[in-house]
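pasting for ref
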Amino acid sequence: MKSIVSSLSSRDRLSIVRFLSYSKRLLLLRRMTMNGIRAARRIVESMAVLEGSSNSKDAVKKAIKFLKDRREKNPVSTIVLLFEVLDQSMCEELNTNLKSK
């Protein structure tokens, strides 16, 4: 995560969501100005590896919602989901939701 945050510029926007049995948005979608990068780095550094099972379907649904609800619509948008384990059903759900956009 640190390298992702470090590679962003003021043209980029980032939202950080942590999820286990439920998801929680830790950083609202914001421009990666110096203040935005500083806020994102603080959050990433404070996050610890948490034990428990992750709710990957909830994470995908929330990511799709962020993409659909954003105020500024860029011609190119990206969702990056970082998981320890990626299951096939989650990939299928992501593809289905993105195609219905």
